[in-house]
Amino acid sequence: MDPVSPPGDTSAAAYLVDGSLYVFRAWHSMPDDFVDHEGQPVNAVHGFTRFLCELIERARPDHLLVAFDQSLTTSFRNNLYPPYKANRELPPPDLERQFRLCAEIVQALGVSMLSDPTYEADDLIGSMLWTLRAEGIPSVIVSADKDFGQLLGNHDEQWDFARNLRWGPQGVIDKLGVEPRQVADYLALTGDAVDNIPGVPGIGAKTASALLSHFGDLESLLARIDEVPYLRLRGAAACAKRLREHADTARLFARITRIALDAPVPASPDGLRRRRTDSARLDSLCEQLRFGPLTRSRLKAINGSPA
Question: At the top level of CATH, which class does the domain 14-177+260-304 belong to?
Answer without folding.
Answer: alpha beta
